[in-house]
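Morning F.,

Quick status update on the modeling queue. The single chain you submitted on Monday has been processed. Sequence for confirmation:
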Amino acid sequence: GWGKIINIASIAGLKGTPADVMDTVGYSASKGGLIALTRDLAVKWGPYGIRVNAIAPGFFLTRMSEKVIARSHDYISHTAPLGRIGNPGELAGAALFLASPASDYVTGVTLPVDGGLSAA
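Structure tokens below.
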């Protein structure tokens, strides 16, 4: 068999954020758990040809994030190396890569799509 699973995590599962930016301990913990699940399933299901990866979006304007972004725009623009909010096409490109044959030798990774925020 074969297949590709792409989990949608968050940079909140990769690093902490100041409480005044995003006070979401439960959300961060759940996304961290999803990242660990991604790695574990990659090891267990790799022998069956199943690749399991995750995308960790940073700040993208959605209904869920619009209040956080409005409150934290200065933090994002000063902390993220690219200094801006992501656009949906940039997130879609990461998913297309992980779903395509170009990623056939990629499994167990979490790909941050966050303008460098996880590196800062």
